[in-house]
Design a protein that fits this description.
The chain contains eight helices and 18 strands. The protein is of the alpha+beta class. The chain starts with 6 loop residues before the first helix and ends in a 6-residue tail after the last helix.
Length: about 350
Amino acid sequence: MTRPAHGGDFVRADSIGADLFPGLAFSGNPLDRVSEKRDDEAFVAALAAREDARTVLIARDAPTLRQTDGAPSPYFALAEPASIGRVTETALLGVRATGAPVFAAALADEAVAALGEKEATVSYDTRQLAIAGRPDLALRDMRSLAVDGLLDGGDVAILAEAKALLGWHARHRFCSCCGAPTRVAAAGWRRECAACRAQHFPRTDPVVIMLVVDGERCLLGRQSRFPRGMYSALAGFVEAGETIEEAVRREIREEAGVRCGSVRYLASQPWPFPTTLMIGCIARAATTELTIDRAELEDARWFARDEVIAMRERRHPDAMTTPHPVAIAHHLIAAWIDGRATI
Ligand SMILES: [Zn+2]
């Protein structure tokens, strides 16, 4: 295989990202995905037969944790999910350095009881879910797992892979070409239609999130669903036939009326809500007058660097804040504040 002529750029961007945002939530998945062997049924069966094979369990879109002697664990023996409820899909997530495989299983909705909702917050899944007769099992929302530090970051990344993949299966049970039911193939990484022979692959939806800077100030905005006082980098889906740079410029122009010049990619983050890839960029403003799209944003404004520092440190006089470190926006803003991200 020949390397792309501009392969050096990819290497450089990757190393910058790793240096800029160490420990980014949902990143750092330790598994070898063995993607080239997923169609080898004997290989996958041999993995499943290993004594050290484990599975994570996703139920109603939430990771399931079991209480062990010490800490909660997201890992189960492969046969265990079937004893808890009806398993709808399974997939091979990958293999550890020790050779131990990690699978994912999805539990049918009826196995899980919704006990109600906690007091509503905008940032978290507020459902209170439980599995009848299994007080040793806890269903936790993905964001709080990333925030509370209960699990190792690598385990959170594995759960993010499982949640995104199994969520895709749950929403793609029928062929988008002909409407017939589809079946799972490639150890959970493909769906096939027997009626029209179409193949369907798990999708990842790219979203650009960008800090627009104008010298010593940056552009931040807020949606009405954000926690009170929180301002963040603007974001939006990359559209068909669009580059990352074009998506950045379009979103900023549409939402804030600002035209951008240079755009630089910094780092990305898997964001399993449901299957997004956040692509973090910094962009240089070419114009500064704001025309805010009020359908998208409650507010947007230019903030001086000192003001953003106060927001990050939760000492802004108007109680304005920047996002939690679980979000790549926090790291984009921090990198600009600290002079690690320039454009
Ligand atoms: Zn079909």
